[in-house]
Amino acid sequence: LGFTGFDTEQPEITSFVVQDTDTGTTDYTNERTVSISFTIQEERGYVAYWLVTENASTPTLSDFSVSSTPSTYAITSDEGELRLFLWVLDDSNNLSTSGDSQIITLDMTAPTVSLIGMASTDSIQFNFSEAVYEPLITSNIEFDNSLSLQSISHSGFSGSESVYILNTDTQYHIPYTVTFNNITDAAGNALSGASITFNGFDTEQPEISSWLVTDTSTPSVTYTNDRTVSISFTVQENRGYIAYWLVTENDTQVPT
Known about the structure:
The chain is mostly beta strands.
């Protein structure tokens, strides 16, 4: 009785790595084609077919068609976090013990920036649409109208948006433009040539530094025999100008 020895042992995937082709990072990629590498333990035969897929289901023999060791994979899913699965088939049609998988996030969209408004007299709040590489913000922003950067700080997230406060030396009613160049997200997508425009404005309250009511005919500040009295005052306003005045006999309500 004669027979040919054969293989019933399943090949084992001992490592599987998915990387961005340019940066080598395993977390993010901004290209649909990613680099893949792996090691396989096959005791008796050899690996005949490979399958990299975005489908979590266990493949059938008919799903295998790649007979040379792959080094890249073309992602078909939409942008976002995705999981790639690796399966191998040996020359005896033994399927790997399990499909090894790796997660990578496909992000091909550059961040955007939007102005939220003035956080205070000398601070503006703006949002990036996603987290960005913070050291580039300070070095890669430009100002016009002699505006200068005093400091910039990350104040947290609003949903997926990344919120920053930029402290400057704005002047009231002067238009300003801040331009952002080569601000990148985690995947390396760059925001360039984007700008936000705003008018410097005033959030400081004016201060009444003196206030005098006198009789119109005499200098008395105690009595008057006329319904019309004289008033005088001085107001300290550091940035803008006084646009409206209100003199009232109502002491119980802050005016609107």
